[in-house]
Protein: ABC transporter permease
Organism: Kaistia nematophila
Amino acid sequence: MSFSDTLSIRSGAWRLPALRLPPLRAILAGVFLLALALAAIEPRLFTAANPLAIAPREAFQPPSWVHVFGTDQSGRDIFTRVIYGARQSLLLGIGAVALSMSVAIVLGLIGGLGGRFAERAVSWLLDVLFSFPTLILALLFAAHLGSGIGPLIIATGIGTAPGYARMVLGQVIAARNAGYVEAARALGHPPIRTIARQILPNAMRPLIVTITMGIGQAIVWSSALSFLGLGAKPPAAEWGTMLAMGRDFVQRAWWLTFFPGFFIVLTTLATTVFGRYLQRRLEGRGA
């Protein structure tokens, strides 16, 4: 290496490519979501206690070194119940989003590929459903289906489906006349193959970020239904149910509602931050 090369390296003329690390908020959101997933898969990694074990003599214990989040009216450890509640809450969020996206895909494909009449019919149906607030629509289905995890997933999924369906419909309409679809038709590909390999993947790609953020929103809606008594039955370790059980003791034991509510907000915030980070990454690659 010559002296001029050495000088250019020292002066900064030649540099290694910079590593673009995610922002701190995205890293923290990812770490929290990973810990939440681990708690849902194997809660015994974080606590060895039983979330349903009662100890009446230890009722209404405030947060301490023994009970980090305190205890409830039956002496159950709140920290343990919050950890075990991650499984049901994530199941509710992911299940509701999966159901709502399934309904949205069906409606979007029917409206986008079924001709002008089908497009108008689906658009009219979505307009009617949009006239109901999401919580009211979910309440209608929850009141009809009853309480429990399964009915709660169905109610939340159907209640949030119109928003996803409108986005899928718009993406399918934009994709049906794209050049790659015309090329597939010109090559004689069957309609099912064109839909499965061309239209649906390209229509769903922009919605990945929306789905990520929608999990947190679905957890909020399902927790609201549980708070109203339409979710998991007490004493189930589910965040919304824990809020409902502790609302009568807010002045006496604030920790009964604070910690499950805090984790609901934190989960929603983490999914939103991580989803927006994914959106910026995808937009950067697209540019």
